[in-house]
Design a protein that fits this description.
Blueprint lengths: L2 H25 L8 H10 L1 H28 L5 H35 L6 H37 L4 H23 L3 H23 L6
C-alpha cells in the first residue's frame, strides 16, 4: 500500500470514528435521579447502554491514534509540534479511557451489585464518591491533553493550510481555556464544549489525510 493510499485509509478511519463518537454521545443515557438510592437504580437500569457507549468510545480513541499517527507522520515526526501532537493525544487517551472505564463500566456494575442491598448503601456511597472524584480529575486532564494535541497539530499545519491550522489552534486554545476555568469553577458547559471539540477536529484531520497532497 502506498503512502497516499494508507493516508487516505487512515483519513477514512478518522472520519468513521468521528461519526461514531457523535453517535455514542447522542446515545449516552441521561441522568435524572435526585437521591442516591435513585442514582443506584438509574445506573443499574442503564448498565446495558452505558457499557457499550463508554466502551465504544474507548475503542474510538484507540483507533483515532492510528489516524493521528499518520497525520503527525505527514507533518514530519522529526519536528517538535507533530511529535508533541501525537504524544499529547496518546496521554489524553489514557486519562479519558480511565474516566470512561469508571463512569460507564465500574459505576454501573457497583450500582447493580448494591441496588438490592439497602443495608450496604453507605458502602456503595463511599465507592461512588471515590469514582466520581477520580472522574472529576481524569476527564478534564484527558481533555486538556487532547486540547494541547489539537493546538500542536494546528500550529504545525499553519504554513500548509491556514484554515485547518487556524481551526486546530482555536479549538485547542479554547479547550485549554475552558478546562482551566472548569478547575476553578466546575461547569458542565465547559466539559461538554471540550468534549465536542475533538470530535469536530477529527473531521478536519480526516479531510487533511483524505485530500491529496495537503502537506506537500
Amino acid at each position: 500500500m502506498t503512502d497516499d493510499k494508507s493516508e487516505r485509509t487512515a483519513g477514512i478511519l478518522l472520519l468513521l470514528t468521528a461519526l461514531a463518537s457523535l453517535a455514542l454521545l447522542a446515545a449516552h443515557p441521561g441522568e435524572t435521579a435526585t437521591t442516591f438510592a435513585g442514582v443506584l437504580k438509574e445506573e443499574a437500569a442503564n448498565r446495558s447502554v452505558a457499557g457499550p457507549v463508554h466502551g465504544g468510545y474507548i475503542a474510538v480513541l484507540v483507533l483515532q491514534i492510528i489516524g493521528y499517527v499518520k497525520l503527525s507522520a505527514r507533518l514530519d515526526l522529526r519536528r517538535l509540534l507533530p511529535l508533541a501532537g501525537i504524544v499529547f493525544f496518546a496521554a489524553g487517551t489514557v486519562f479519558l479511557s480511565a474516566s470512561l472505564l469508571l463512569d460507564g463500566l465500574v459505576i454501573p456494575a457497583l450500582a447493580a451489585r448494591y441496588d438490592d442491598v439497602p443495608a450496604k448503601i453507605e458502602s456503595a456511597r463511599a465507592l461512588f464518591v471515590f469514582c466520581e472524584t477520580a472522574i472529576g480529575f481524569l476527564m478534564p486532564i484527558g481533555l486538556m491533553f487532547q486540547g494541547a494535541s489539537i493546538a500542536s497539530w494546528g500550529a504545525a499545519l499553519w504554513r500548509r493550510s491556514r484554515i485547518a491550522g487556524g481551526i486546530g489552534v482555536l479549538f485547542g486554545l479554547l479547550m485549554l481555556g475552558a478546562l482551566t476555568a472548569n478547575f476553578a469553577r466546575p461547569n458542565p458547559v465547559f466539559l461538554m464544549g471540550s468534549l465536542i471539540a475533538p470530535m469536530l477536529w477529527a473531521f478536519v484531520a480526516a479531510w487533511l489525510l483524505i485530500r491529496r497532497n495537503t502537506a506537500e
